Structures are given as C-alpha cells and as structure tokens.
Amino acid sequence: MVKDADMNRAMQEDAVYIAANAIDEHNTEQEIARYIKIQFDHKHKPYWHCIVGGTFSSNVTMRFQLLRNHEKQNV
C-alpha cells in the first residue's frame, strides 16, 4: 500500500513489487534496503536512498551544485 508519493503510478507499482520481492528473498533489514536501493538505482537511475526498519535514525547530507546559464535576448 502506498500512503503518499510523488512518483507516477507505474513507479509506485514497481516500488511495491520490488519491496515485496526484497522481503521474500532477504532476512535482514539491511539486506532488504540494499536490494531495494540496487533495484531502483538500476531501473530508475541513480541515486536512491532506502531506509528500512521499525525503529531507526538517519542522518543524510546532500550537496547540490547548480549552474545557471542566462542569455539576454533582444526582443
């Protein structure tokens, strides 16, 4: 069940399918998360984060680099 997502419907269905397979094929939360991340990196292009568990903490740092190119056009 997907409660809330900003993915399109096909990607949501794929996520549910991949997660179900991960749970069936792996025993630990770490293995499940790794499987889901690898599948999503491959199918939906990198880079994905996957966190699995009932009680956990996380600390994620991201760095964005942005290049803007503005051209002035005579109108």
Structural summary, described in words:
Keywords: Cytoplasm, Cytoskeleton, Dynein, Microtubule, Motor protein, mRNA transport, Nucleus, Protein transport, Transport. Its main location: cytoplasm. Belongs to the dynein light chain family. With 75 residues, the chain is mainly α. It has a single domain, classed as Protein Inhibitor Of Neuronal Nitric Oxide Synthase. Helices cover 44% and strands 0% of the residues. It contains 2 helices and no strands. The longest helix has 17 residues. It starts with 8 loop residues before the first helix and ends in a 31-residue tail after the last helix.
Total individual domains: 1
What is the tally of beta strands?
0
Sheet having the most strands: none
Rg for CA atoms: 18 Å
CATH topology name, in short, is Protein Inhibitor Of Neuronal Nitric Oxide Synthase
pLDDT < 50 runs, ≥5 residues = none
Distance N terminus to C terminus?
52 Å
Q: What would a concise description of this structure say?
A:
This protein is an all-alpha fold and 75 residues long.
Topology:
Elements: H1 9-25, H2 29-44
Helix pairs in contact: 1-2
Keyphrases for this structure?
75 residues, mainly alpha, Protein Inhibitor Of Neuronal Nitric Oxide Synthase, 2 helices, 0% strand, globular
